[in-house]
Amino acid sequence: MLDLLLRALLGGLGVAAVAGPLGAFVVWRRMAYFGDTLAHSALLGVALGFLFDINLNLAIVVLCVGLALVLVTLQKKHIIATDTLLGILAHSALSLGLVAVSFLDNIRIDLMAYLFGDLLAISQTDVYWIYGGGLTVIALLVTFWKPLLAMTVNEELAKVEGYPVEAIRLLLMLLVALVIAVAMKIVGVLLITSLMIIPAATARKLSKTPVQMASYASVIGCLSVCGGLWASYQWDTPTGPSVVVCAAMLFLIAYTVPFKRKR
Amino acid sequence: MTKQLVAFEKIGIAFDGRVLLESIDMSISEGEIVTLIGPNGSGKSTLIRTLLGLQEATSGQVVRHKTLRIGYMPQKLHIDPTLPLTVKHFLALVRGVDKHQILPTLEKLGIAHLVNSQVHVLSGGETQRVLLARALLNKPNLLVLDEPVQGVDVNGQVELYNLIEGIRNELGCGVLMVSHDLHLVMAKTDTVVCINQHVCCSGSPQHVTGHPAYQALFGVPGADESIAIYAHQHDHVHDEHGSILSGNDDDHTHCQHH
Fold first, then answer.
1. CA A9, CA B174: separation in Å to the nearest integer?
2. Residue A1 and residue A100: Cα distance in Å, rounded?
3. Any A CB within 8 A of B70 CB
4. Number of separate domains in chain A
5. To the nearest 5 percent, what fractions of chain B are helix, strand and coil?
6. Other C-beta atoms within 10 Å of A235: how many?
7. pTM of the shown model
8. What is the tens place of the pLDDT at every residue in B29-86?
9. CB–CB of A194/A242 below 8 Å?
10. In CATH, what number is assigned to the domain containing residue A130?
């Protein structure tokens, strides 16, 4: 039992630590709906993974990246408004995933676990995936921090100064896709975006620089995971939603308790 | 012989069958201040964006000197309020910036006290200076300024233009400026290029204001009494009460005060 909890805690902390800084970018660039779309399509990745018998995490990453590329291409054509496009893609991908899953007769998939996550079900291999993927994401974030931030602040200025803006935008999408793939086990496709956005939004209240906001988001995410796990253990509540509820409570506290903030 | 930094050669841009620019020829050399004027929708910004590589030309080409390094000051700066950012951190984002240059640059522009301010709380004039600082930190030999005095009051405009001229004199860089308000920019400009889809006229400020094509676009100077061109030599500084602070001991006979 202790082993199980420890593994859940390790996995959860790993995911929260990565989701924080990336969530900051999602908030800054107003990509929340984009993150949702990728997350919803992850279920289709799971179904395809089973269908073609490939590693599920890999299938999710490939599908998310593929979808991100499709999105960027369609966005450039200005056929319809971006939010409409995202809505269409998100829900068609989710539905397609659900339909595809129903075709897999001989494999029983615990749908609930994929939709809402099951922190207590993570295996040793999952922990390796989380830390492997997580460290890759952090390493890329640190290496490309300045171009990523420069592009976020002002794309035109960044481009004029010679940053490869298109490539960096793609990198950010890739990172979001990676985080979704590794975080899926913990909070599920429906709640992943919240684990990225809520801690980052909470951190906004407390920070004066981008680095502060990104690192506080990590810490706040980790606190939420600890709180959520504890609540789940205490009252036998579902872990994924408990983590999100905990994050939301921290957000409420940060914005209602009057902190002194220097300009 | 001064170095030619940029030359537009027969630049044409059409978008969805609508012609935005047609056969634009102009050039900017080191140490030269060129002001691009034209009414709204005349294609000023489009031309600037072509120079910056943000917009493809449909025809013609932009010839850039191999040493060309642009410092770009955009019209506005919108930073999402969810992104906490101080002036210092904003300026540190310049590619390959020497961080030790940030404070001296801010000092030169008279805004050293803003170094730790959040970018969201700056006034219009302060924002313009921070943007100018960012352009300068890119170590440019060509400054591209898109409506640099927008939203700045008249005194602020004079100061900002003096600052820009001072930078030109110090760095010897070229300056390409966009303006739709001609009255204040004139005095310091070497060349004015008036465009409205095509180059209407270009030359020295005096030449351009007398040109029929300019007058057709902007009216005859002096015809509108509410806007007067106040062309006096500013070789002194006023204190807060308007009296003259003695910078040098010349008398100021050519400048009348009311």
1. 59
2. 35
3. yes
4. 1
5. 30, 25, 40
6. 8
7. 0.82
8. 888 889 888 877 788 888 888 888 888 888 888 888 888 889 999 888 888 889 999 9
9. no
10. 1.10.3470.10
